[in-house]
Write a structure and sequence with these properties.
Blueprint: H1 3-25, E1 29-33, E2 39-43, H2 45-74, H3 83-101, H4 111-139, H5 144-182, H6 186-189
Helix pairs in contact: 1-2, 2-3, 2-5, 3-4, 4-5
């Protein structure tokens, strides 16, 4: 097997592993009721979405985050209808993170760039998620007050999720990068 085929195989395998991590980490959550009958959650899924972007770059990380999160939605009756949006939004969360973290050849190893990447990816996701919630609330015919109350709750939970994801994923990336370098697996991902 050629070196490029081995590298591709490692990237595919790691993408699958990261998709599984994203999927499972979504189950570690606390549901929060929302004003218009919806549910928001504080969860650990975004940690591994960002982590996927750091480790696999924009495309591999985006696919792992989108697939893992989308599959979670498909297994939960409350979120089935949102699965396509979740796939796209979580893909973009990790893709933006990966794009910034891997820019100019840094490959997710620059701590300062990783913090900026995690914050930017999280902000992109929050804007998309809250925008969707606003439009859905209006399309469902809810009154503006109820829609804004729901958005306020979702803004708080999204902000908590983002803060946890940034605070955990950046140091986690540094530790895992070191471990993968020691066993010579990191170079197979890049």
């Amino acid at each position: 097997m050629s070196k490029s085929n081995k590298s591709t195989l490692y990237r595919v395998v790691f993408s699958g592993v990261f998709a599984a991590l994203v999927f499972v980490s979504n189950y570690i959550s606390v549901p929060i009721p929302v004003a218009i009958g919806d549910v928001s959650r504080i969860h650990f899924g975004n940690i591994f979405c960002l982590f996927s972007g750091f480790m696999l770059g924009p495309v591999g990380g985006g696919l792992a985050a989108g697939i893992g999160s989308g599959l979670y939605d498909l297994t939960n009756p409350a979120y089935v209808a949102s699965a396509p949006f979740t796939f796209a939004f979580k893909f973009l969360l990790a893709a933006v993170c990966g794009w910034i973290a891997h820019s100019k050849g840094s490959n997710g190893e620059n701590q300062g760039k990783n913090i900026a990447a995690a914050v930017c990816g999280s902000l992109v996701y929050m804007i998309l998620y809250l925008g969707k919630a606003f439009v859905e609330g209006l399309l469902l015919g809810s009154e503006m007050g109820a829609v804004l109350a729901a958005l306020a709750t979702k803004l708080v939970t999204s902000s908590i999720n983002a803060a946890i994801a940034v605070a955990v994923s950046v140091p986690l990336c540094a530790v895992i990068h070191l471990a993968l370098k020691k066993v010579r697996l990191l170079d197979k991902l890049v």
